[in-house]
Amino acid sequence: MDARDIYFAGGCFWGTEAYLRKLPGVIDTEVGYANSAVTYPTYEQVCSNQTNAAETVRVRYDADRLRLSTLVQAYLRTVNPTSINHQGNDIGSQYRTGIYWVSAADEPVVKEALAALQEKLPMPVAIEARPLENFFEAEEPHQDYLVKHPRGYCHVDLADADAFIAENQLK
Predict the structure, then answer these.
(1) Pair 39, 136: CB distance under 8 Å
(2) Given CA atoms 26, 7, 130, 90 in this order, what sign does their dihedral have?
(3) Residue 112 and residue 110: Cα distance in Å, rounded?
């Protein structure tokens, strides 16, 4: 198994986590705060708009089973790629979209996917794409939130994950 990590900010991290964890080849997910100016920020600090942190999901995946390009395409289906600091009902800089990598080898894959997306859109793609600076685990109540609260708020269409899996013949 070739376990790798990539980080996705897609608005509220609950829905992004629930969607991506359904994909075959995803080993583990963890929600937290990426690229924060504050060490170990709390949810309240992040929501105060004073940390520069983005609600983000660390996705650990098996690169032998799931290509990064496929994982990025799945993520792109969960966001409005032209919206700045706003996904679903969530508004604020902590809800910005972003893809953050830890391996320089991931940069061209991410940038190629975003460039291809931009060619299809009349407005600029607003998804950040850059190396991860830091990541701090969110508090326990936020981990696996939609597993614990199946009727909880989610701007992401979780049923679309099943369609994505079928369309891409993921096993």
Answers:
(1) yes
(2) positive
(3) 5
Catalytic hit among 6, 8, 10, 12: 12
Share of the chain above pLDDT 70, in %: 100
**72-102 pLDDT per residue, tens:** 999 999 999 999 999 999 999 999 999 999 9
Whether 144 contacts 152, CB under 8 Å: no
| 12 carries an active-site annotation | yes
Task: State the Cα–Cα distance between residues 83 and 58, nearest whole angstrom.
Answer: 22
Mean pLDDT of all residues in the chain?
A: 96
User: Does the pLDDT at position 154 exceed 90?
Assistant: no
pTM, 2 dp: 0.96
Identify residue 24 by its one-letter amino acid code: P
